[in-house]
């Protein structure tokens, strides 16, 4: 009788544990729907403090932890420039850091100096007119793992189905939501200077000098050349945007702008956002992100990830 009682107790505890795990997974977003839409961005122009990383995205957790430890009250942001399914992990590039200010408000000099003291660089991102976006709940660390396996495939499918040129891929962590954004305009303004530096290094001296003279003596740019763009008013003040390798004479805002490193290669062609039948408000109708929000962040994509600790208010 005692053996049966013991087995029943063990079975009951096991069932209770399974139910607890299931409830935890559901609370973390296991059954949350992923709605992808296109429209106006849920944020204005932002100034960020970031560190640039080249290597597997699974190694960026320490950067989130480091940026959160400098000022826990700020939101975390990550910009991923390469598709890890198409680019070797050791060559994947991203920028991870914190949002210092949004809109017309300028970050304080003390805050900038604090981040620069810990090796962060400061850069400004504009507010593009249109983006592809999705949100996912962030309630536990498991939410990051679930978002990586549910949101990014949905974004890829949406972009490919509509043949959009949408890149790079941004993640903004605010309170209990993760915002996933893919700009459809002004993409070049989201590329930090280090990205262009790695592209120049990757081209090497041979490709760097492949502008050849045509029959009239004028220089002609090859497909591997890099073309500098004039950045108009309202764009970032730090530097000019540069085209990715493989793009000749066309801006990032043009259609069919793809390279071996760009997310735009996930689409069959580069349709303009003007061709979209923009969905309703969806997640884009939510209030603007506030600069005082709690920082949360971690890398993405289907692989084992290191998860930064959630910042405390």
TrEMBL record:
Q: Where is the composition biased (Low complexity)?
A: 264-273
According to the UniProt record, where is the region Disordered? 198-313
Q: Name one GO cellular component term.
A: autophagosome membrane
InterPro entries per record: Reg_factor_effector_dom_sf (IPR011256)
Keywords noted in UniProt: Receptor
The question of whether DNA repair is a record keyword is answered with: no
Top-level division of the source organism's lineage: Eukaryota
Instruction: Decide whether keyword Transport is in the record.
Output: no
Write out the biased-composition intervals (Basic and acidic residues). 251-263, 301-313
* Coiled-coil spans in chain: none
GO annotation terms (biological process): protein-DNA covalent cross-linking repair; reticulophagy
| Protein's name according to its UniProt entry | Testis expressed 264, ER-phagy receptor
Which species is this record about?
Pipistrellus kuhlii
